[in-house]
From TrEMBL:
Keywords: Nucleus, Transcription, Transcription regulation. This is Transcription initiation factor TFIID subunit 2. It comes from Hippocampus comes (Tiger tail seahorse). Residues 1044-1073 have a biased composition (Basic residues). The keyword Iron-sulfur does not apply. Residues 617-962 form the Transcription initiation factor TFIID subunit 2 TPR repeats domain. Residues 1028-1103 are annotated as: Disordered.
């Protein structure tokens, strides 16, 4: 299939006018219907091989449930939404736009069998798919930095042009964009030429993408971009907004190293002939990858002075490039195979991380990711990587614990999807542990080689299936290359959800010189599963470190591990460690009878598990001091929080002083030391924890309270210098207040901070000092309920408030990079309010949350607002965005188990409208709204809703309508049928224009007449039970070529039918309400489906 697209842009009006030309080779004789995906687009005309073709446009996801429906339970919504998405799912051969192939085409006996489908369309002020950024300042569009770019979460290309919006439908592309001459258009493929119009006011960019690519991997960015050709690789081009070129040069200076690394490990060239990076404002996510180009957030750019942003930007670039190979070049066969692509791209990104940032950073990242997925699965239930649906019925839902369906990416919660990606790359690592990295990279190379060969076969599209990766093909490739059977591993981690939870305890048997280890499992809690198989245990003894592989069977709990060394207290001998190093240890703390120093269960993290191991405090201390693996050190620090003893204090202080220790371990030790100091507050000797150490490392020798001038050349000590004050501020004295000398010390650090001779920026350091001030705050003690004013503030708090105010005012004159200091100030002010030092007032946060401030500042302000109101004012106050809904889910004003005054019918309606019809332009936003609804009200009907006095229950299975005087809140009324449009057999009546809305309305009026409670109406029209769900307007041949009234805004949505129901009789249809029989025979085959936008039944029609 070949596709050509032309677009013209008008920025001030935020509109697009374009056409799409698809070249289709039919695989069946007499093809009579073509189904495409299209949302928001207004379709003007469709022609096939120069013949006008009638078409129908219907988008059931615009309004998921019938607007009159009084249903408010989430079970009902979820199944209706899944059905609506299935109804237009391109992988199942459906779409919003159905085109009838004129029968004359087949009568002509055209031998070429090529269909050229030509579609004219326009977009006016799109809400999704394309984002226009036009700042409200003086000047021309280019001077204002106006730009537009495509965005979206999974299969969102349908939002900006009609296409087959599936990752498994590949075709080659020609793309043309006509824009203002001051702008640049960046799209996928190679730029062939740029042609100006006669008046030189506009120009057309011609791109060609010869590699077969799926529509969701096509993107576009238009703006007054500054262009930088990569000095190391001329086929790579970078684009950024005006005046950001110096930042772009620095940020992109190491991209060629990432290219070299991936090409080397995959032993395969980068698959496209060019690569483009585009940095845009107000981006949807930090990184979006498309064929031969990636769109990044402009906030990733930084100068050479910024330390903290550098590793984050490098990671984003590495992720984007990994997805070019697996995700864009190699696409997926179906949604169920998504985990393979996400897993491989995440896995090779991890290899880059290991090479660039080192093994410590890599193992720390793996532990972080493992902890995230374990916490999420234990809290929410399992994450399933390869969902399979037998028969496609919702009854076969493999994850009943979730409040959303896994059938489509569009119904998934965003949080779940992030965890899904996290689990996918961890499972790839488990496969690598099983078959070795060498075989793993050979498998990737084989997949890329096959795809590369297939992509060059221009006219043999049956070969292109090699460019689509499925779970089956991936596993087959592994078995061919490595000869190993990994099916048990796949069954455990891919086909099943949940993680493993181990509890370990042990005793040393001196007589037998044996370690008796007991490993118990919890597999009954939510999100856990039973593990049977090998597990590695590492035992550090006096004579060295020994690895043992134990077999976990069905019932066995206890394992005897023979020890290699006898206990010896008096012989002075160095102790060999795991890495071959030999060290002197002070063994006075250990048990006289036992040779054990410490034990670790599954040290390589080769199971997705949580381990809780009981061992003595001295063992954790030895492990922290002498184990060289960062994961072991971090586990030891977490365990020592429960052992507040002088020995723990000493071990942590030693780690802080060790320069060769990984900096993130030292940062974690700071916070652990603060907790231990607070637990030992009555027995603590000497100066406050970390103060003398900080003074020794960073302050002047002659005057210990004055900090040296900043020099951040050593990054390890820079991160430690930032973290220690933040942890120190958490210290508390016997009265549970922050010690006076700690507070004065932090104020001195701020006062004497001098960055004049430093080549790096200190904005993150100053932001952390402000965070330290925030941490030092404790709740105010009110006397006689006096009102808090700035005048009667505590002296210490007044000093803190003065510093915050000074910083906030300075920020207005000299803003810091990414406004980090403003963000810290806002958090500090909120903390002052929460602790009762200043009156709670939302106006400051409201002003900072308004459009125009830097995005991170707005997010911080909104977070404070959500915390302040614990309510929903911010839903009205600011454009509802992904971040706000996520914050409300994390910090809800009430939950399904608690009562609240703001839980009322108006709120339920507001949220219901938001997820039902208010977020149809963005899949992710709709799922966020569903999450919030679930957090607040659960799956059933919200308890704050009144019970309808009289409701009509339509039972579709038994074909009965029953009056139900008391509908129970949790009763799911009626039945939701989860069936996609099944119209392959019926033929579409394209000739008649139907007005089924008027007919339905007539029946609703009949039903809504007051009836005596308790008496059933004598007769309910049987036809109600097969009521058409949405009017689906179709066009007779003579009206197809005109943009008729019927065509309406955004595909004749049902709102218009209600308003125009009386006027509609002027159209062709003369049928009145009484000739129901003829009406019934004329019904559109689609109308019977609940997925056509309106629900099939109107369950509770109250008086």
């Amino acid at each position: 299939m070949n596709r050509k697209r032309d677009k013209g842009f008008e920025s001030p009006r935020k509109s697009v006018i374009g056409y799409v030309e698809l070249t289709i080779i039919p695989t069946v004789a007499n093809l009579n219907r073509i189904k495409l995906n299209s949302k928001q687009c207004r379709i003007y005309r469709v022609r096939i091989n120069d013949l006008e073709a009638p078409f129908i446009y219907n988008d059931p996801t615009l309004e998921v449930c019938h607007s009159e429906s009084k249903q408010r339970n989430l079970n009902y919504f979820s199944s209706a939404y899944t059905a609506a998405v299935s109804a237009v799912d391109p992988d199942a051969g459906h779409g919003e736009l159905v085109i009838k192939v004129p029968s004359e085409l087949w009568k002509q006996g055209d031998d070429s069998h090529l269909l050229k489908v030509y579609i004219e369309f326009s977009l006016d002020q799109p809400k999704g798919g394309l984002h226009f950024v036009i700042h409200d300042v003086e000047g021309s569009m280019a001077e204002r930095g106006a730009h537009v770019f495509s965005f979206g979460h999974h299969n969102s290309t349908r939002f900006w042009f009609p296409c087959v919006d599936s990752y498994s439908e590949l075709c080659t592309w020609k793309l043309e964009f006509t824009i203002d001459s001051s702008m640049v258009a960046v799209s996928c493929g190679d730029l062939i030429e740029t042609i100006y119009t006669h008046d030189m006011r506009k120009k057309t960019f011609h791109y060609v993408l010869p590699i077969p690519t799926a529509a969701p991997n096509i993107s576009l960015a238009v703006g007054p971009f500054e262009i930088l050709v990569d000095p190391y690789m001329h086929e790579v081009t970078h684009f950024c907004l005006p005046q950001l070129l110096p930042l772009l040069k620095h940020s992109m200076s190491y991209l060629h190293e990432i290219f070299e690394f991936y090409e080397e490990i995959l032993t395969c060239r980068y698959p496209y002939s060019c690569f483009k990076t585009v940095f845009v404002d107000e981006s949807y996510v930090q990184v979006s990858s498309y064929a031969s180009m990636s769109i990044f957030s402009t906030n990733l750019l930084h100068s050479a002075m910024i330390i903290d942003q550098t590793p984050l930007t490098r990671r984003c670039l590495a992720q984007a490039l990994a997805q070019q190979f697996f995700g864009c070049f190699i696409s997926r066969m179906s949604w169920a195979d998504e985990w393979v692509l996400k897993g491989i791209s995440g896995y090779i990104f991890g290899l880059y991380l290991k090479k660039t940032f080192g093994v410590n950073e890599y193992r720390h990242w793996i532990k972080e990711e493992l902890d995230k997925i374990v916490d999420y699965e234990l809290k929410m239930g399992g994450v399933l990587l390869h969902p399979t649906f037998s028969g496609g019925k919702e009854k076969d839902n493999p994850t009943p614990h979730l409040h959303f369906s896994l059938k489509h990416p569009h119904t998934l919660s965003w949080e779940y999807y992030k965890m899904f990606q996290c689990k996918a790359h961890l499972v790839m690592r488990l496969i690598e542990n099983r078959i070795s990295m060498e075989f793993m990279l050979q498998v990737f190379n084989k997949l890329l080689s096959l795809a590369s060969t297939a992509s060059s076969q221009r006219y043999q599209s049956h070969m292109w299936s090699q460019m689509l990766l499925s779970t089956h093909a991936f596993l087959k490739s592994i078995s061919n290359v490595s000869g190993k059977d990994i099916s048990p591993l796949i069954k455990q981690w891919v086909d099943q959800s949940a993680v493993v939870k181990f509890y370990g305890s042990f005793a040393f048997n001196r007589k037998r010189n044996v370690l008796e280890l007991e490993i118990r499992q919890d597999y009954t809690s939510s999100g856990t599963q039973k593990y049977v198989g090998p597990i590695k245990v590492t035992v550090q003894e006096l004579d060295g470190s020994f690895n043992h592989t134990l077999q976990i069977e069905e019932n066995s709990l206890k394992h005897d591990i023979p020890c290699h060394s006898k206990s010896r207290r008096n012989k002075k001998k160095k102790i060999p460690l795991m890495n071959g190093e030999e060290v002197d240890m002070d063994l006075s703390a250990m048990d006289a009878d036992s040779p054990l120093l410490w034990i670790r269960i599954d040290p390589d993290m080769s199971i997705l598990r949580k381990v809780e191991l009981e061992q003595a405090d001295f063992m954790w201390q030895y492990q922290l001091r002498y184990e060289r693996d960062v994961v072991a050190q971090e586990e030891a620090i977490s365990a020592l929080e429960t052992f507040p003893t002088p020995a723990s204090r000493l071990a942590l202080t030693d780690i802080l002083e060790q320069e060769q220790c990984f900096y993130k371990v030292r940062m974690q030790a700071c916070f652990c030391l603060a907790k231990i100091a607070n637990a030992m507050v009555s027995t603590w000797q000497g100066p406050p924890a970390m103060k003398s150490l900080f003074t020794r490392m960073f302050c002047c020798k002659s005057c210990p309270n004055i900090v040296k001038t900043n020099n951040f050349i050593n990054f390890q000590s820079y991160f430690l210098q930032k973290t220690m004050p933040v942890a120190m501020a958490l210290l508390r004295d016997v009265q549970n207040l922050c010690p006076k000398d700690v507070l004065n010390f932090i104020l001195d650090l701020i006062k004497y901070n001098d960055n004049r001779k430093n080549k790096f920026s200190d904005n993150y350091y100053r932001a952390d000092l402000l965070e330290a001030l925030t941490n030092s705050l404790t709740p105010a003690i009110s006397i006689n309920n006096e009102t808090r004013t700035v005048d009667n503030l505590n002296a210490d708090v007044r000093l803190i408030l003065e510093e915050i105010t000074r910083f906030l005012n300075m920020e207005k004159l000299l803003p810091s990079y990414k406004s980090t200091i403003t963000i810290s100030c806002l958090k500090a002010i909120r903390q002052l309010q929460k602790n009762g030092h200043i009156p709670s007032e939302a106006s400051l946060f409201r002003s900072y949350a308004e459009y125009g401030h830097f995005v991170d500042v707005r997010v911080a302000a909104i977070e404070a607002l959500v915390d302040y109101t614990r309510g929903f004012e911010c839903l009205d106050f600011v454009v509802v965005s992904h971040k706000i809904l996520a914050m409300l889910c994390k910090n809800p004003p009430f939950t399904k188990t608690t009562e609240s005054a703001i839980c009322n019918e108006a709120l339920v309606d507001q949220l219901w409208k938001l997820m039902n019809s208010g977020t149809s332009h963005d899949w992710r936003l709709r799922c966020d709204a569903v999450n919030l609804y679930y957090t607040l009200f659960g799956l059933t009907r919200p308890s704050c809703l009144p019970l309808p006095e009289l409701g009509l229950v339509l039972n579709l299975k038994e074909k009965k309508a029953v009056l139900n005087p008391t509908i129970k809140p949790e009763q799911s009324v009626g039945a939701v049928i989860d069936t996609p449009f099944n119209t392959e057999d019926e033929d579409i009546d394209m000739e008649t224009v139907h007005d089924s809305q008027a007919f339905i309305h007539h029946h609703l009026n009949l039903l809504e007449r007051p009836s005596t409670p308790g008496k059933e109406p004598a007769f309910v029209e049987q036809s109600m039970l097969s009521m058409p769900a949405t009017p689906i307007p179709s066009f007779s041949k003579d009206t197809t070529s005109l943009p008729s009234k019927h065509r309406g805004e955004h595909g004749h949505h049902h709102h218009e039918h209600k308003k125009k129901k009386k006027k509609k009789h002027k159209h062709k249809h003369k049928h009145k309400h009484d000739n129901k029989d003829r009406e019934r025979s004329n019904w559109h085959p689609y109308s019977n489906s609940p997925v056509s936008g309106k629900s099939l039944h109107s369950p509770s029609l109250s008086e």
